[in-house]
Amino acid sequence: MKIAVIGAGYVGLVSGACLADFGHEVCCIDRDPRRIENLRAGRMPIYEPGLAELTAANVSAGRLSFEQDLATGIRDAEVIFIAVGTPSRPEDGHADLTFVYDVAREIAAHLKGYAVIVTKSTVPVGTSDEVERLVRSLRPEIEFSVASNPEFLREGAAIGDFKIPDRIVVGVEDDRARAVMAAVYRPLFLNQAPTLFTDRRSSELTKYAANAFLATKITFINEMADICEKTGANVQDVARGMGLDKRIGPKFLHAGPGFGGSCFPKDVRALIKTGQDFDVPSRIVEAVADVNERRKRRMGRRIIAACGGDIRDRVIAVLGLTFKPRTDDMREAPSIAIIQTLHDAGARVHAFDPAGMEQAREVLGDVTYFRDPYEAVAGADAVAIVTEWESLRALDLKKMHGLMHKSILVDLRNIYIPEQAVAAGFTYLSVGRGDLET
Ligand code: UDX
């Protein structure tokens, strides 16, 4: 099939490369000429394991191409995916649909014959209806369908998530679109991926409901961690005991500094807005957003308290800056609020991240960066681990201890065994497991 994907960002690029790998002929379109130039030269605009290789293989097989001009890119396409950003609107937290509707208008201007226009971006309920209305008003003579097909991939595991998904959700309003979408995903049906065909509105809401539910699960276990700390329980055991109940499941029960990233915070805010707009506010989701936001700064205060309350001119080392491992993405990373809190209290922050330091420079204030975690902790009063990168899981704690001015280890991802940290000479704090002193 001939497929166009508009927006060569995270979702667009991964979807485009994977669809090409299924054997479709895919053109990824982006209005940013530098991005297209880089992609044509094999340079990826995002950090995603395996993406460069997958892209190169499909480009050389002649199935994947990149195009700046939308009219050229969508020519003869049977399916046109809209995969542009839907960021939070600063004024009210709702999803900003400017890019989606701009693209819909442009598609309308260049549509030559029947195509299925698919909203793959995360969009509020009713957006696909609006895309249909827009295109129809501009091109009443052309036949087309609009489908909703949200993407559930995670950064850092995007290719695997796309190719072996837990499920595919497709919202359609007519049989022709349904048949076309079935053909797009046929290779996955052969993998027996469960496919849910539904109406467009249910499909759109499914994405928000799933993300908000996962965000709730994380926030819930984070609150349980707080209760564990006060009562002497161990949150990892509590999570394991809960997760073994098949109705609950073990995933997304890792307590930590709060969720971040490009999806959860923004989607939670947009769902809150939808509920309020329709006069059915979701108290649960509102609480999740509020609790998570406060938590990030609270983690900063926890580090300060561990240092005795006064960290003016003290060096605090922060290891792991990105919102999660295996990405260079700093969007809404807990490290931002934590470092702000440390700065507000007068600390000097030394930082290390395996992939995110370039991005971090753009969002963090006055931070000194190091290319090595041991260099970052040298002379520090405390070290905080904020992201659970593999390379941070097996640090030589004795060596670290020897390099530091004081020896406080705040492990916000619970990746060390408390007794081992204490044996290496640290006062050790983690999340929901009780603090241990040397
Ligand atoms: C998420 C969804 O998982 C994905 O389906 C959707 O399409 C986009 O949003 P992503 O943002 O890439 O994906 O990251 P994810 O691995 O889900 O983690 C999100 C945040 O939750 C991270 O900050 C992570 O550290 C945090 N998290 C996750 C926890 O704190 N505890 C957990 O148990 C799981």
From TrEMBL:
Chain residues that bind NAD(+): 30, 35, 86, 122, 155, 266, 331
Catalytic residues (positions): 263
Keywords assigned: NAD, Oxidoreductase
Class of enzymatic activity (EC top level): oxidoreductase
Keyword Nucleotide-binding: no
InterPro entries hit by this protein: 6-PGluconate_DH-like_C_sf, NAD(P)-bd_dom_sf, UDP-Glc/GDP-Man, UDP-Glc/GDP-Man_DH_C, UDP-Glc/GDP-Man_DH_C_sf, UDP-Glc/GDP-Man_DH_dimer, UDP-Glc/GDP-Man_DH_N, UDPglc_DH_bac
Entries under Gene3D superfamilies matching the protein: Cytochrome c1, transmembrane anchor, C-terminal, NAD(P)-binding Rossmann-like Domain
Top-level taxon in the UniProt lineage: Bacteria
Its biological purpose: Catalyzes the conversion of UDP-glucose into UDP-glucuronate, one of the precursors of teichuronic acid.
Signal peptide interval: none
Reaction catalysis annotation: UDP-alpha-D-glucose + 2 NAD(+) + H2O = UDP-alpha-D-glucuronate + 2 NADH + 3 H(+)
Membership in a protein family: Belongs to the UDP-glucose/GDP-mannose dehydrogenase family.
SUPFAM superfamilies: 6-phosphogluconate dehydrogenase C-terminal domain-like, NAD(P)-binding Rossmann-fold domains, UDP-glucose/GDP-mannose dehydrogenase C-terminal domain
EC identifiers of the protein: 1.1.1.22
Sequence positions that bind substrate: 152-155, 207, 252-256, 260, 324
A GO BP annotation: UDP-glucuronate biosynthetic process
Matches recorded under PROSITE patterns: PROKAR_LIPOPROTEIN
This protein's pathway: Nucleotide-sugar biosynthesis; UDP-alpha-D-glucuronate biosynthesis; UDP-alpha-D-glucuronate from UDP-alpha-D-glucose: step 1/1
Name this polypeptide is given: UDP-glucose 6-dehydrogenase
Native organism: Novacetimonas cocois
